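Q: Given only this backbone (222 positions), what sequence would you predict?
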């Protein structure tokens, strides 16, 4: 690969086949079709929690930072989600004092973080607001020079890739991502009756254009 000019990052690469891999602090396990917080991330979050309990008084910014960590953990552990709501109701304007009542809400998190309960992949669909069966799926991506798309329909799959036409090449990345989505949709064969089409993209602006038929804070993409 190096002779072709492709320099992989070995530090970030998984060179042997595995059914369990860590990504952004989350362990994805295909043998159980579930996800859970990594041990390192769990230890990091527990440290922040203990520091908050020891200090007894936090700035609003530090409180928001702690809630952000617990919210991320809750996305990987359904059991933690219900514990998050009472904490989100606490909204200090400047500082917050860890009262007896607040301490009673925070302390159980240490044990839940230590256990790192898992969450089935199937629950992620409801977390993302997805409903119904994944009958037809299109996953797309775009770079500065080209695009790629994969179509999944049952056990069948197709892939396609290419370079952008000149008018798209000079456009911004949102237009390029939308072009990739359009090319992916064109691969979908004609359906008898209605079918659910789910598109996966890593560009939030393109997602907004598809779901809302345009952005709410920007002018037309051209």
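A: Predicted residues:
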């Amino acid at each position: 690969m190096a002779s072709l000019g492709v320099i992989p990052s070995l530090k970030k690469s998984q060179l042997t086949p595995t059914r369990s891999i860590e990504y952004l602090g989350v362990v994805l396990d295909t043998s159980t079709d579930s996800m859970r917080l990594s041990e390192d991330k769990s230890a990091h979050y527990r440290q922040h929690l203990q520091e908050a309990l020891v200090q007894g008084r936090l700035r609003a910014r530090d409180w928001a930072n702690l809630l952000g960590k617990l919210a991320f953990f809750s996305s990987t552990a359904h059991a933690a989600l219900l514990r998050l709501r009472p904490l989100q109701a606490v909204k200090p304007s400047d500082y917050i004092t860890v009262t007896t009542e607040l301490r009673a809400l925070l302390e159980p998190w240490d044990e839940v973080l230590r256990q790192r309960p898992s969450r089935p992949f199937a629950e992620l669909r409801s977390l993302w607001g997805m409903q119904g069966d994944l009958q037809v799926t299109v996953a797309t991506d775009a770079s500065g020079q080209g695009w790629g798309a994969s179509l999944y329909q049952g056990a069948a799959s197709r892939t396609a890739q290419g370079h952008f036409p000149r008018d798209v090449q000079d456009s911004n990345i949102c237009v390029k991502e939308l072009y990739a989505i359009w090319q992916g949709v064109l691969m979908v064969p004609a359906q008898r009756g209605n079918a659910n089409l789910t598109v996966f993209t890593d560009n939030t602006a393109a997602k907004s254009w598809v779901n809302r038929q345009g952005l709410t804070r920007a002018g037309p993409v051209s």
